[in-house]
Design a protein that fits this description.
Among the domains are: about 130 residues, NAD(P)-binding Rossmann-like Domain (Rossmann fold), CATH 3.40.50; about 160 residues, Succinyl-CoA synthetase domains (Rossmann fold, 3-Layer(aba) Sandwich); about 160 residues, D-amino Acid Aminotransferase, Chain A, domain 1 (2-Layer Sandwich), CATH 3.30.470. Helices cover about 40% and strands about 20% of the residues. It has 22 helices and 29 strands. The strands form five sheets. It has a seven-stranded mixed beta sheet with strand order 3-4-2-1-5-6-7, with helices on one face. The longest helix is centred in the middle third of the chain and has 20 residues.
């Protein structure tokens, strides 16, 4: 979308309120009061055929009667009049907010109305926020173009919400939580302007430092990945995503018509795009406060200062399994600390200043950590009887400003720390109520910074037109023959085009059964597009050791599956069984699935997901971090499997998915992998259309 036109929507010089009113309880009345009484300096027009005047201001009968062009029209009228109103005014007004409900969230009839408006927007080049939305608020220009009351403080946080009610609740909490906003935007049904368009717009908004979103679903997964990946290189995006369970996803669909999608795939998408995911509302607020006030951490090492041993222990525990760690303090620094601290103090990390510590000990410890070049410091405090809480807070602020340290206070308490919290707020330091919350928030900020450092280039998958043509030829032939799936031989031929080897195999007939070149032991299986789960249906025989057993098994299989093709496969040893698949996600498109295969797939659920596009190096990195990464690192004295070979197979599947979009389902189960330089091979291949 055109960024300049989006600016006209969110910072308009003129606004028309369609459905303006002066009756108590009407949304049109709230809009009139919000826009005219909170300091907005632009031109305002009222539109409602039921009034000639509202207050001392003229009220127009229709948008088209306004003599001048209007940059933004806000519609708070019955849904059935919305499309006609927009169509008539589209020559004069290019930006609209549809507050009105009664569209896709209500069912088929509402969806048809919404589709008609969307078509009109495309044809006329309009920008439309909503429908079924709260509107938006832009505190820096004192504009409340919503039916939420009040005007939050102006700041650098942009908040986008798929729930109007949550936006209202956040505004209510904003003063207490000391959040200040550049924009608050309710998206409603996301008919035209969705999270992707807003992330792109806010990514270029100079007033915005951090973008926070509450989402119930993502409209266009591929577009979201592209836009969020680009914006994440400039500024952090924090998302609180609802829909972690199947029940929640059903509730979401009825609420906004949104498709929540698999939560595990959502996690993968956010990581790929450099998005910071908040686990709950408290963490979401904590992240917004931290990111809006602090520079991104350039180091993964931290120090902890505390006046309470128990708090120090909790902090130490909070670093478990984190990507940020406690820094090592040098022997020289420890020697200096021993000279200035009581003998009972701990000079390890965490540094325990003891319960009687005052501001002088905090200052000495912070100065020394600055000399040690430790940039991230958590200052813990519990308000004990003799603790001068406010003076310690003032000392911490002074050290942060003087030394350039990223000091995160963790003052644990209630009434006794209120004065200190005010000091921190005035000086843009963010206090956390617990060590766990502070350390968790800083870790996520650091991971985002590492994303920026390591992702300057965007990966692109290149289509191989010759390979695509050959694979399509095999698949189209099967479709023409009205088969539902490829035979194993055809599947193996397609996989060979993508560099994935299949196990040795051969068709078996009564005529060639004595001349098979595949040695014993071997497996016999039915190769049919109607019998896809062979083991469950008795279509697989393993461990055939000689010709006599082969003839017997073949005869029994022919009887059980008359007219079906039967193949023999070499039965070889393996180191590990892997399952590979392609899942057609309704939001993000083809998703590569890989994990531990065989009998362990359902038991351990060691499955991982990848979203295209990715480079070979990116895939290899993910494999080593994955739930089956232990296979590629070596464990319990075992040699490691080849991570690069496996990454090439996963990249091949990404290419296959891109070049063969008509494939509905795909899996290789199992793929045998080895740790002795043998080549990985596919034992069973399902390509279903």
């Amino acid at each position: 979308m055109n960024n300049k036109k989006m600016e006209n929507l969110f910072a308009p010089q003129s606004i028309a309120i369609v459905g303006a009113s002066n009756k108590k309880g009407k949304i049109g009345t709230v809009l009139v009061n919000n826009i005219t009484k909170l300091g907005y300096q632009g031109k305002v027009y009222f539109v409602n055929p039921s009034y000639k005047m509202i207050g001392l201001k003229k009220c127009y009968q229709a948008l088209t009667e306004i003599p001048k062009e209007v940059e933004l029209a806000i519609l708070a009228i019955p849904a059935k009049f919305v499309c006609e109103t927009i169509e008539q005014a589209s020559g004069k007004v290019k930006n609209f907010i549809i507050i009105s409900a009664g569209f896709s969230e209500t069912g088929t009839a509402g969806k048809k109305m919404e589709e008609k408006i969307e078509k009109l927007a495309r044809e006329k080049g309009l920008h439309i926020l909503g429908p079924n939305c709260l509107g938006f608020i832009a505190p820096p220009v004192k504009l409340n173009a919503s039916f939420a009351t009040g005007l939050p403080s102006a700041g650098n946080i942009a908040f986008v919400s798929q729930s109007g009610a949550l936006a209202v609740a956040l505004m209510d909490k904003a003063k207490k939580e000391h959040l200040a906003f550049s924009k608050i935007i309710s998206v409603g049904n996301k008919m035209q302007i969705s999270e992707s368009e807003l992330i792109e717009y806010l990514g270029n908004d100079e007033q915005t430092k951090v973008i926070g979103l509450y989402l119930e679903g993502i409209k266009d997964g591929q577009k979201f990945l592209k836009v969020a990946s680009q914006v994440s290189l400039k500024k952090p995006i924090v998302i609180l995503k609802a829909g972690k369970t199947a029940k929640t996803q059903v509730a979401i669909a009825s609420h906004t018509g949104a498709l929540a999608g698999s939560d595990e795939i959502m996690d993968v998408a956010f990581e790929k795009a450099g998005v910071i995911r908040a686990n709950d509302l408290d963490e979401f607020l904590n992240l917004l406060k931290l990111l809006s006030n602090y520079a991104a951490p350039k180091s993964s090492t931290c120090a902890v200062i505390t006046n309470a041993g128990g708090a120090g222990v909790l902090a130490t525990d909070a670093f478990k399994d984190k990507q940020i760690t406690l820094a090592e303090i040098s022997a020289i620094a420890k020697k200096k600390l021993r000279k200035i601290l009581p003998s009972e103090s701990s000079v390890e990390n965490p540094i325990d200043l003891l319960g009687d510590a005052q501001e002088d000990r905090y200052q000495a410890a912070l100065e020394l950590l600055h000399q040690e070049k430790i940039e991230n410091v958590f200052c813990l405090l519990t308000p004990q009887g003799q603790t001068r809480v406010a003076k310690i807070a003032t000392t911490i602020v002074a050290q942060a400003q003087k030394r350039g340290l990223d000091i995160v206070p963790v003052f644990i308490g209630g009434e006794k720390i209120v004065g200190a919290l005010d000091i921190f707020i005035k000086n843009k330091l963010v206090n956390f109520a617990t060590p766990e919350a502070a350390i968790g928030a800083l870790e996520k900020y650091r991971i985002w910074q590492q994303f920026r450092e390591n992702n300057s280039k965007v990966s692109v998958l290149k289509i191989d037109s010759q390979r695509k043509s050959l694979s399509q030829e095999i698949i189209k032939k099967a479709i023409t023959e009205k088969r539902k799936a490829l035979s194993f031989a055809d599947g193996a031929s397609v996989m060979e085009l993508y560099g994935i080897a299949a196990i040795a195999h051969s068709d078996v007939t009564a005529e060639n059964i004595q001349s098979l070149t595949i040695g014993f032991p071997l497996a016999l299986k039915v190769d049919s597009d109607t019998i896809l789960h062979k083991t469950d249906q008795g279509g697989l025989r393993l461990g055939i050791k000689n010709e006599e057993e082969l003839k017997k098994s073949f005869s029994e299989m022919q009887t059980a599956f008359p007219g079906e093709k039967i193949i023999a496969q070499a039965q070889v040893d393996k180191f590990a069984e892997i399952i590979l698949g392609i899942k057609k996600d309704p939001i993000f498109g083809p998703v590569i699935v890989y994990g531990l295969g065989g009998i362990y797939t359902e038991i351990f659920k060691l499955v991982n997901f990848l979203l295209a596009p990715m480079s070979l190096k990116e895939i290899e990195t993910q494999v080593l971090k994955s739930k089956i990464g232990f296979l590629f690192k070596g464990a319990r004295g075992q040699k490691a499997c080849d991570a690069k070979e496996f990454a090439k197979i996963l990249l091949a599947l990404m290419n296959f998915a891109q070049e063969n979009p008509q494939v509905a389902e795909f899996d290789i189960n199992p793929l045998f992998i080895y740790n002795d330089k043998q080549r990985a091979c596919a034992v069973d291949i399902k390509i279903i259309f």
